[in-house]
From TrEMBL:
Name of the protein in its database record: Isochorismatase-like domain-containing protein
Source organism superkingdom: Eukaryota
Family: Belongs to the isochorismatase family.
Boundaries of every Isochorismatase-like domain copy: 8-189
Region forming the signal peptide: none
InterPro entries xrefs: Isochorismatase-like_dom, Isochorismatase-like_sf
Length: 194
């Protein structure tokens, strides 16, 4: 294993059924298309010995831990997205948590907010991050910008292994440009694998 991979982690953000299936209320348009690239990115990360961290949302069925602006989706007579232990909170088909991976449960956009992600990465000696998942203007962006604020020395986003934005490809690309403008590497899967 190359030395640089020992200090690198891949963050896989919100690749859960409720965000990926077209019939779901929180479905990210275009996200289905990135699933094969996320599968490939995780496979390559494992081959390189990179720590794979699964960042997922899991909420209480009553919505007591969800953002205020989404709380109306939860309750006794409602089936809100990514409820803990329900099918919608499961990873997309083809993705699975394996021995040696780590799982972080979040209830907000950023994988760092209110979680132990930063301390886990520090303890593992991680200073470089590679980010995949959904969705670019929300959970991916917030996680990346928090990593930037926490001084990770290298942060990359795999542009075709991150979910398309909710309304247009332009939003996806604009968010990637914002990230690039503050020093985040924006690479295609092919470029990252090379």
């Amino acid at each position: 294993m190359e030395e640089k991979w020992k200090t690198t982690a891949m963050l896989v953000v919100d690749m859960q059924k409720d965000f990926l299936k077209p019939e779901k209320i929180m479905q990210v348009p275009g996200a289905q298309a990135v699933i094969p690239n996320v599968i490939k990115a995780v496979e390559v990360a494992r081959q390189r010995g990179i720590l794979v961290v699964w960042i997922v949302r899991e909420h209480d069925s009553m919505g007591r831990d969800v953002e205020f602006h989404r709380s109306h989706m939860y309750g006794e007579d409602k089936e809100g997205p990514t409820i803990k232990d329900r099918v919608g909170a499961e990873l997309a088909d083809g993705l699975d948590i394996q021995n040696g991976d780590y799982k972080i449960v979040k209830t907000r956009y950023s994988g760092f907010y209110g979680t132990n992600l930063h301390s886990v990465l520090q303890r593992a000696g991680i200073d470089s991050l590679v980010v995949t998942g959904v969705q670019t203007p929300y959970c991916v962006r917030h996680t990346v910008f928090d990593a930037l604020e926490l001084d990770y020395s290298s942060i990359s986003v795999i542009t075709d292994a991150t979910g398309a934005a909710p309304f247009s490809v332009e939003i996806h690309e604009a968010n990637l440009l914002d990230m690039k403008n503050v020093g985040i590497a924006t690479l295609t899967l092919k470029e990252w694998c090379a």
